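User: My collaborator sent over this chain with a note saying "see what the structure looks like." That's all I know about it. Can you take a look?
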Amino acid sequence: MADHYETLGVSREATPEEIKKAYRRLARELHPDVNPSEEASERFKAVTHAYDVLSDPEQRQRYDVGGDANGGMGGFGDIFETFFGGGGFGGGQRGPRSRSERGDDAMIRVDVALDEVIFGSQRDITVNTAVLCDTCQGSCCQPGTHPVTCDVCGGQGQVQRQVRSLFGNVVTMHPCGSCQGYGTVIEHPCITCGGKGRVRERRTIPVDIPSGIDTGTRLQMRGGGEVGPGGGPNGDLFIEFRVTHHDIFSRDGDDLLCTMQVSMTDAILGVQSKLEGLDGEIPVDIEAGVQSGDIITVRGRGIQGLRTTNRGDLKIAVQVATPTKLSKREQDLVRQLAALRKDDAPHLGEFHQSFFGKIRDRFFR
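Assistant: Without extra context I'll predict from the sequence alone. Here is the result:
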């Protein structure tokens, strides 16, 4: 068995970074896509196996004391694996491992407008994930070819290693370095996906945006994530929503909040008005004598709650607008009104919060 350090061309004192650099240099030189010769293929397998051992601190330590050299002294882990059923694949797995694995989950963030939240909506979104390779359909092989049995492990995915121990010579099982434990070797990888069984692709999917969502709400779409290596099952897709700012309306739970300017005369006499809401016109009754800071509540014109058909309310804060420029005729009429009313002169009274402070307290009490 060749010395792993010699295979990679590094000293036994090489740092992990030096080992990684050596492997990358040799892999670029010997990879089957670059050098298709049989000799390069064998060297590439040996280089890959050497890197697998030396890049793992525990395996490298065992190797350095003889546990991975020609019949060298094995560590206690190898001994225990032999007597208690370990197989070198973690958890005692026996036989070759599957090339097909579950894909990773994916997450994207989607901005939605406030009007989309009232009743919910549907949106087409574009995601960039791994999808099944159309050329090989997940087999990882060029069409017309198939994996061949590994001639090192005979399709078992494992190789035996004899180790000298305190108990005498024992035999341990380890992943085959030639086929990486798969039991088969792909001699003709699919040129489209590079033998992965999947490719990255932008795809468009329809998404139902539920009513009542708020910033940070996540939607899970099972099977909407990345297809796994070797055509394995898809992971899940998680969509995190962010409700964008609206210039007029804001929200408090399922209630919508806004402010409305009312002229002085409408505030005095009262008026029926119509406002343009997020879901159409909203009739509003402004009662005579309304004051700045009063809240007008329109029932059932808020947001439809998440997982319910009930809607919140629309709460409108009134702001009475005092005119700043009056004609002489208007001034005379106001003076006549003041004379008729005989209101008290300005005087000190109870401290009041600011207009917006009053609105805040009334909105959220």
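A starting point for your reply to your collaborator: The first helix runs from residue 4 to 8.
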